[in-house]
Amino acid sequence: MRPACILLTRLIAMAVMVLGLPGCATTMRYAFDDHPSPCQDISYSYGGTQMDSIMLTDSLFDDDGDWRLSALLFLDLPLSFVFDTVLLPVSIPLDWDAHQQCQAKQSDA
């Protein structure tokens, strides 16, 4: 392989990794929360930022916390904040629906 092809391959691989990193907590919040409870603690609005801050606090103040996880969460926190801000037009209606369902569930109980 020519050096230019190797460099191009490495640049593409690095770009894919960098583009996949931002807001991974936000992505987890939307992708893996199939059937959320309507009365949950973490909302959709800034949910990734909330998850990052909870996990970061837990990893920093836990006796057997891993500093590598803390470093990754610290890097992901501002990226999740930006990604959450971009997704506000989607997350606000989801939060509103969850709030309405929670009120209906509490009034039935």
Number of strands: 0
* Anisotropy-based shape: flat
Instruction: Indicate the radius of gyration in whole angstroms.
Output: 18 Å
Distance between the termini: 68 Å
Taken in chain order, the helices and strands follow as HHHHH
List low-confidence stretches: none
Structural class: mainly alpha
Biggest β-sheet strands, sense, barrel: none
Tell me, rounded to a whole number, the average pLDDT: 76
Number of helices: 5
What portion of residues belong to β-strands?
Answer: under 5%
**Helix content, binned percent:** over 70%
Describe what you observe in this structure.
The chain has 109 residues and is mostly helical. 75% of the residues lie in helices and 0% in strands. It has five helices and no strands. It has helices at 3-20, 24-31, 47-61, 67-86, 88-108. It is flat. 18% of the residues are buried. The mean pLDDT is 76.
